[in-house]
């Protein structure tokens, strides 16, 4: 075992994964399960029944006080003022030049309290950025902020059977609507339960103190067993989110891409008078962008597309027009799918493109997100 | 525990070799298919291609990644397992049988001495 591996962080569910004989990999500085049985099997379980994911590596930031809303609305692209207590929204944290620092979920827990859930790989950078903003531009605001990420575990219960399963532990959770969050109780501790996810299926995300994680996992697994619930790893999480067309930081989103380029303009509230990145994002919205993030599907027989493969035009000029940022074999569709950036003129749904795979080009088509949706 | 048949020879890059006259059949080991996880696409070498031992000549793709497969021996490709085109999972289910990759007519049979015995290969994968 090399040095790097011994320094990886472990979630409170590490022993649980070991007992399940999970295959572990490094992800964002953490030792995480990539699969338990098979990526395809776990993927299908989430589409047809349910899957349970350890997402304890993700970060949680708390904000409170009379100026918490004002502060966060200066930092985040979406409009937090639109949330009632108990609601959440997808949003982004941007630099002044519009480059994405992270994409995240922001919840309004009460009149003056907010919870942000951020990516594991960006946690430290986000927190440093937020602290720096607080101590420079927003010194006079009245608010408290904390980063209890190390004390909190999180898991995602996803799939059409998720509501039925969660009702066995949190009877009221099944009444939550999409993007709502509730502060509930589990074994004497606070549990935040939201109706959100990263799979394109109905489902819930749950945050509990580290010490309650294993018991909650066991409870959900035993309730779900008869309904087809499987533990699911990062491998299935990635194929599911790619089919859903969701961005992943480090792939579709980097500090060199903006939310407008990433086709996330719907999460940028340009009607807010002032927030980090607003000037650039408003200009891009007004003037258009030179490249845009697309979802695509391979249309003939080919190997799966992969990150960094080149994209060429299929309009006869055979020009290089972009690059794949995420690619995989879709377990639901049985063909290659991906996300990537192309010149704006080629980003329209239905446009034919070509993906270069080991020096040969294969046809693909720009597709509307989600790439896969159940017909029901 | 991965299966390592005793009648085959192995490359440290996890291919197996079965010899018949001057022709070797090549596939990947049970340990390799387990590590790769379920395969979804396999690209085999063109017939007639002349290869030097250690050349990458096939690609296997799991849901997550693409990996090169190397020829353990020099020679000319005289047959490929085209059934893998529509059923790549055969490699996972039967790596030493129906999951074979290609047959190569050897140009340098002395290279067989560079391959690992089943015991040596077992030692390598158990580290």
Q: What's the helix and strand layout?
A:
The complex is a heterodimer of chains A (376) and B (127).
Chain A: H1 3-6, H2 14-19, E1 23-27, E2 30-35, H3 39-48, E3 50-54, E4 59-64, H4 68-75, E5 87-94, E6 100-108, E7 114-118, H5 123-135, E8 144-146, E9 152-158, H6 162-166, E10 181-186, E11 189-194, E12 203-209, H7 213-224, E13 229-231, H8 234-244, H9 278-287, E14 291-298, E15 310-313, E16 320-329, E17 336-343, E18 352-357, E19 360-367
Parallel strand pairs in A: 3-13
Antiparallel strand pairs in A: 1-2, 3-9, 4-7, 4-8, 5-6, 6-7, 9-12, 10-11, 11-12, 14-17, 14-19, 15-16, 15-18, 16-17, 18-19
Chain B: E1 9-10, E2 15-20, E3 23-28, H1 30-36, E4 39-43, E5 50-51, E6 56-62, E7 66-70, E8 75-80, H2 90-93, E9 102-106, H3 118-126
Antiparallel strand pairs in B: 1-2, 2-3, 3-9, 4-6, 5-8, 6-7, 8-9
Structure write-up:
The complex is a heterodimer of chains A (376) and B (127). With 376 residues, chain A is of the alpha+beta class. Chain A folds into two domains: 1-289, 2-Layer Sandwich (Gyrase A, domain 2); 291-367, Elongation Factor Tu (Ef-tu), domain 3, CATH 2.40.30.110. Helices cover 21% and strands 32% of the residues of chain A. Chain A has nine helices and 19 strands. In chain A, strands 10-11-12-9-3-13 form a six-stranded mixed beta sheet, sandwiched between helices. A six-stranded antiparallel beta barrel of chain A has the order 14-17-16-15-18-19. In chain A, strands 5-6-7-4-8 form a five-stranded antiparallel beta sheet, with helices on one face. Chain A is globular. Chain A starts with a helix and ends in a 9-residue tail after the last strand. The model of chain A has no long low-confidence stretch (mean pLDDT 96). With 127 residues, chain B is an alpha+beta fold. Chain B has a single domain (9-107), classed as OB fold (Dihydrolipoamide Acetyltransferase, E2P). Chain B has three helices and nine strands; from the N terminus they run βββαβββββαβα. In chain B, the strands form two sheets. Chain B has a six-stranded antiparallel beta sheet with strand order 1-2-3-9-8-5. Chain B has a three-stranded antiparallel beta sheet with strand order 4-6-7, with no helix packed on it. In chain B, a hairpin with a 4-residue loop joins β1 (9-10) and β2. The model of chain B has no long low-confidence stretch (mean pLDDT 96). Chains A and B meet through α3 and α8 of A and β4 and β6 of B.
């Amino acid at each position: 075992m090399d040095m790097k591996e011994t320094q990886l962080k472990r979630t409170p569910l590490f022993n649980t994964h070991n007992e399940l004989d999970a295959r572990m990999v490094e992800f964002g500085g953490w030792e995480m399960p990539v699969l338990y049985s098979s990526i395809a099997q776990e993927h299908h379980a989430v589409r047809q029944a349910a899957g349970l994911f350890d997402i304890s590596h993700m970060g949680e930031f708390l904000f409170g006080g009379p100026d918490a809303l004002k502060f966060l609305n200066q930092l985040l692209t979406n409009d937090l003022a639109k949330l009632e207590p108990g609601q959440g929204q997808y949003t982004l944290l941007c630099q002044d030049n519009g480059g994405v620092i992270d994409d995240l979920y922001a919840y309004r827990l009460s009149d003056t309290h907010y919870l942000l859930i951020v990516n594991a790989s960006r946690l430290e950078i986000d927190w440093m950025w937020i602290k720096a903003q607080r101590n420079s531009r927003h010194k006079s605001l009245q608010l408290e902020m904390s980063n209890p990420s190390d004390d909190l575990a999180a898991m995602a219960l996803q799939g059409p059977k998720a509501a039925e399963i969660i009702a066995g532990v949190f009877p009221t959770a099944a009444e939550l609507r999409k993007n709502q969050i509730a502060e509930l109780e589990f074994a004497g501790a606070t549990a935040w339960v939201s109706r959100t996810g990263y799979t394109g299926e109905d489902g819930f995300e749950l945050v509990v103190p580290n010490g309650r994680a294993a018991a909650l996992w066991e409870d959900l697994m035993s309730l779900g067993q008869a309904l087809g619930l499987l533990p699911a790893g990062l491998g299935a999480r990635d194929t599911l989110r790619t089919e859903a067309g969701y961005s992943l930081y480090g792939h579709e989103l980097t500090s060199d891409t903006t939310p407008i380029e990433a086709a996330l303009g719907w999460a940028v509230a340009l009607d807010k008078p002032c927030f980090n990145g607003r000037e650039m994002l408003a200009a891009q919205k007004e003037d258009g962008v030179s490249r845009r993030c697309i979802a695509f599907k391979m249309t003939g027989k080919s190997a799966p597309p992969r990150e960094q493969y080149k994209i060429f035009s299929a309009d006869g000029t055979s020009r290089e027009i972009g690059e794949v940022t995420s690619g995989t074999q879709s377990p639901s569709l049985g063909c290659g799918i991906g996300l990537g950036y192309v010149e704006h003129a080629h980003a329209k749904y239905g446009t034919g493109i070509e993906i270069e795979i080991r020096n040969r080009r294969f046809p693909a088509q720009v597709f509307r997100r989600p790439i896969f949706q159940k017909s029901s | 525990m991965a299966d390592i048949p005793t009648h085959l020879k192995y490359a440290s890059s996890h291919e197996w070799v079965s010899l018949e006259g001057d022709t070797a059949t090549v596939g990947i080991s049970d340990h390799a298919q387990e590590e790769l996880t379920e395969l979804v696409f396999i690209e085999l070498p063109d017939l007639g291609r002349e290869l030097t031992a250690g050349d990458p000549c096939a690609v296997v793709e799991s849901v997550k990644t693409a990996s090169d497969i190397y020829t353990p021996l020099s020679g000319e490709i005289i047959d490929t397992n085209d059934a893998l085109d529509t059923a790549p999972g055969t490699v996972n289910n039967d790596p030493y049988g129906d999951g074979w990759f290609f047959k190569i007519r050897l140009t340098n049979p002395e290279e067989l001495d560079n391959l690992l015995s089943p015991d040596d290969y077992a030692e390598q994968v158990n580290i």
